[in-house]
Write a structure and sequence with these properties.
Elements lengths: L1 H18 L8 E2 L2 E7 L6 H14 L4 E7 L12 H6 L8 E4 L16 H9 L2 E2 L1 E10 L4 E10 L8 E9 L2 E3 L11 E2 L2 E4 L2 E5 L6 E3 L7 E9 L3 E2 L2 E2 L5 E9 L4 E6 L1 E5 L4 E7 L12 E6 L6 E10 L2 E11 L4 E5 L13 E10 L2 E2 L5 E5 L3 E4 L3 E6 L7 E7 L4 E5 L9 E6 L5 E9 L6 E2 L2 E2 L1 E6 L2 E6 L6 E8 L9 E5 L5 E3 L6 E5 L3 E8 L4 E5 L3 E3 L6 E9 L2 E9 L1
Parallel strand pairs: 2-3, 6-19, 28-38
Antiparallel strand pairs: 1-5, 2-4, 6-7, 7-14, 8-12, 8-13, 8-17, 9-11, 10-11, 15-16, 17-18, 20-21, 21-24, 22-23, 22-25, 25-26, 25-27, 29-32, 29-36, 30-31, 30-33, 32-39, 33-38, 34-35, 36-37, 40-41, 41-44, 42-43, 42-45, 45-46
Length: 564
C-alpha cells in the first residue's frame, strides 16, 4: 500500500512537471524584492531611488525594486494598496525599504537605505523553496494586459499556504519631487522622472492563495487586466509598464520573485520623449532638441520622417540610420530657427509620420522650450535675494565656450541673504549666467520670497521671481568691451555687521554678534588674510579694493573695503 501511494504521488508530480511550461524546476537561490517606501516632499528620497536603481543594475535578473508612495505629501501617487503594506513594516520615516519583507534584527522589516545592499546580498545567498516565472502580453490596440504566472516548488515551504502577488509598475512618470539633486540623472527640467512606481496590484492586497506548497508542487495563474488611460491624471503608457510577481509566506516573508517578460502586440515605433539639447552656448534665438525613439515594431528602423511643430510652423526631417527592433535611440533634430521671442514658452511637438517608407500615425511627444537671451550693454549688475536656505543657492557666469569667469555660493542657512554682483567682461560677445538650487525648488516659496534682477546702465533687463526649480539660465550678448571686472558687492543677511574704518590704513574693526571668522580676499576671490579677531591688521596689504567675508552666528556677510 505504501509503495502504491508513493508511486501515485510520483506519477502526479511527473504530470505536474510536464504541465508546467516555462518555470525552472532546478533548485535556485532566492531573488530579491526591494519595496521602497517614499514620498514627494522628502529630501533624501531621491537618494533612495538612486540606490535602488544601482542595486537593480548591479544584480540583473536577481533584484527588482517597487517604489511605493505613501503619506499625506504623496497623495498624487498613493494607491489603495500602499498604506497597508507600509503599516506592517514598522518604518519611522522616508526613505525606507524592506528586503523580501524579512526581519533582519529586532521586530521591524523596515531598513534605512544604507542597509539595503547588505540585506539583499544575504537574501540572494539563501536557497528558495520555490521558483517563479511570468510572461506578460499587452495588446496595444485594446490595452488588454494578460499575465501568466508559474510557480514550482523545489522544496517545502515553511507554511502550508503561500500567496502569489502580481504588482503593476510604471516607469517614466514625470512629476514633482523634492531633493531631486540627490538623483540628478532623473531630473527633467523642473520635474522628476519616477521609476518602477506602484500603480496597481493585479492579485489584490495580499495575493492569491497557493494551497499546495510541498516539494514538486506546481501552480499557475492567469490575470487579465484592462490598462486605464490615466491614474490620478498621469498617463498610463503601456510600454512603460512592467509586472513584478513574488510568492510570500503569510503576508510577510517573500520567498522569491521575478519580473515578467513583456511582449507588446501590434506595437509600432514611436517618439516617446522630446528634450532640449544644450550643445554649447549660443545667444542666438534658436533651439536644439532631440527626440527619444522607441522601436516597438518587429523590424529595424532604417529610415523615418520626423514631423515637428513649433510656433505654428511645421517642418519635416528625413532621417536614416538603424534602430533595432525593441531598442531605444535618441535622434537630434536640425537646429530650429524662427522668429522667437526671448523668455516666451514655445510648445515643440514631434512625431513620426513615416517609418521605412510606410505612413505612421504616431501621437508623438512634446516639450516646452524657453530661451532667455538678451542683448545688453555692460556692465550688468545683479541683485540676488536668497530664501532662508541660502546653502542651496549657487551661480556661475561663463563665456560661451564654458570658461567660468565668476562663481558665487553656497550661502549660509538661517536667513535671507542679499548679494550684489557685477558682470563686465573685457570682450563683447555671448556670455551665460546660470543660477542653481540644490533642492530643485527655486528660491521663492514657503521658505522666503527670493528673486534676482539683472540691470544695465539703460535700466532693468529682467526680474526672475525665483520659481525656477533646479536652474535658471540666461544668455547675455554684450555689445561692448568692458573693464573685465567680475566683482562681488556687499552680501547682507539681515544681521547688523559693521566693518570700519573704510577706507582703512592699518587696523580694520569688525563688529558682529557671535563673530567666528574674518576673511579678506582680493577682487579675484583669492584669500589673502584670515582672522578670528574683531580687529584685523591689514597694514601689510597693497593699496586697492578688497572683500571682507564675516562669518558670525547669524550667517555670512560680505563687505567691500578700500585699503589705502
Amino acid at each position: 500500500m505504501k509503495k502504491t501511494i508513493l508511486l501515485a504521488f510520483a506519477i502526479m508530480a511527473a504530470g505536474l512537471v510536464s504541465a508546467q511550461t516555462f518555470v525552472s524546476t532546478t533548485p535556485s537561490n532566492k531573488n530579491v524584492i526591494l519595496e521602497e517606501f517614499t514620498g514627494v516632499n522628502c529630501g533624501y528620497c531621491p537618494d533612495g531611488h538612486r540606490i535602488a536603481n544601482e542595486l537593480m543594475a548591479a544584480n540583473p535578473g536577481r533584484l527588482w525594486a517597487i517604489n511605493i508612495h505613501t503619506g499625506g505629501y504623496a497623495v498624487r501617487y498613493n494607491t489603495q494598496w500602499g498604506a497597508a503594506i507600509a503599516a506592517q513594516t514598522g518604518l519611522t520615516g522616508y526613505p525606507a525599504g524592506t528586503v523580501n519583507r524579512h526581519v533582519f534584527s529586532g521586530s521591524s522589516t523596515a531598513l534605512n537605505r544604507g542597509q539595503w545592499s547588505a540585506a539583499a546580498n544575504t537574501i540572494m545567498n539563501q536557497p528558495s523553496p520555490v521558483n517563479v516565472a511570468a510572461r506578460c502580453t499587452i495588446d496595444m490596440q485594446t490595452r488588454q494586459l494578460t499575465l501568466v504566472v508559474e510557480a514550482y516548488y523545489t522544496g517545502n515551504s515553511n507554511t502550508s499556504v503561500n500567496y502569489l502577488n502580481a504588482v503593476l509598475l510604471q516607469d517614466n512618470v514625470i512629476g514633482p519631487q523634492g531633493g531631486a539633486s540627490y538623483n540628478p540623472t532623473q531630473v527633467v527640467g523642473s520635474q522628476y522622472r519616477h521609476m518602477h512606481m506602484l500603480r496597481d496590484m493585479l492579485s489584490g492586497q495580499w495575493g492569491d492563495t497557493i494551497s499546495n506548497t510541498t516539494q514538486g508542487s506546481f501552480y499557475t495563474k492567469t490575470y487579465n487586466y484592462t490598462i486605464p488611460a490615466t491614474i490620478t491624471d498621469d498617463p498610463v503608457v503601456p510600454e512603460d509598464l512592467n509586472v513584478v510577481v513574488f510568492v510570500t509566506e503569510s503576508h510577510q516573508e517573500i520567498l522569491s520573485g521575478c519580473e515578467a517578460s513583456l511582449l507588446l502586440l501590434g506595437a509600432q515605433p514611436k517618439v516617446s520623449d522630446v528634450a532640449e539639447v544644450v550643445d554649447g552656448y549660443d545667444c542666438a534665438m534658436n533651439f536644439k532638441a532631440k527626440a527619444t525613439v522607441k522601436n516597438l515594431g518587429e523590424n529595424a528602423m532604417t529610415s523615418a520622417v520626423f514631423s515637428y511643430t513649433i510656433g505654428g510652423n511645421t517642418n519635416t526631417y528625413n532621417w536614416t540610420g538603424n534602430i533595432a527592433a525593441g531598442s531605444v535611440a535618441e535622434v537630434t533634430l536640425p537646429t530650429i530657427t524662427g522668429s522667437f521671442n526671448s523668455g516666451t514658452d514655445y510648445t515643440l511637438q514631434v512625431r513620426l509620420s513615416e517609418v521605412n517608407g510606410q505612413s505612421l500615425n504616431d501621437g508623438g511627444a512634446q516639450t516646452t522650450l524657453n530661451k532667455k537671451s538678451y542683448t545688453v550693454e555692460g556692465p550688468v549688475t545683479m541683485k540676488l535675494v536668497t530664501d532662508k536656505y541660502a546653502s542651496e543657492t549657487t551661480l556661475k557666469f561663463m563665456k560661451a565656450d564654458g570658461t567660468v569667469l565668476k562663481t558665487w555660493g553656497p550661502g549660509t542657512d538661517g536667513s535671507s541673504q542679499t548679494i550684489n554682483l557685477t558682470f563686465d567682461p573685457a570682450q563683447a560677445g555671448c556670455y551665460v549666467l546660470e543660477v542653481y538650487d540644490a533642492y530643485a525648488d527655486g528660491i521663492s516659496g514657503s521658505y522666503g520670497n527670493g528673486y534676482f534682477t539683472l540691470s544695465s546702465p539703460a535700466g532693468q533687463i529682467v526680474r526672475d521671481n525665483g520659481a525656477y526649480g533646479a536652474m535658471a539660465r540666461y544668455y547675455l550678448n554684450f555689445t561692448n568691451n568692458g573693464s573685465g571686472n567680475m566683482g562681488i558687492g556687499d552680501v547682507e543677511n539681515g544681521s547688523a555687521v559693521a566693518v570700519y574704518p573704510n577706507p582703512v590704513e592699518d587696523v580694520l574693526n569688525v563688529n558682529a554678534e557671535g563673530l567666528r571668522n574674518v576673511e579678506v580676499m582680493d577682487m579675484s576671490g583669492r584669500l589673502v588674510m584670515s582672522s578670528t579677531n574683531a580687529q584685523v591688521n591689514v597694514s601689510t596689504l597693497s593699496n586697492g579694493l578688497y572683500m571682507v567675508r564675516v562669518v558670525s552666528e547669524n550667517g555670512v556677510t560680505v563687505k567691500k573695503i578700500v585699503k589705502k
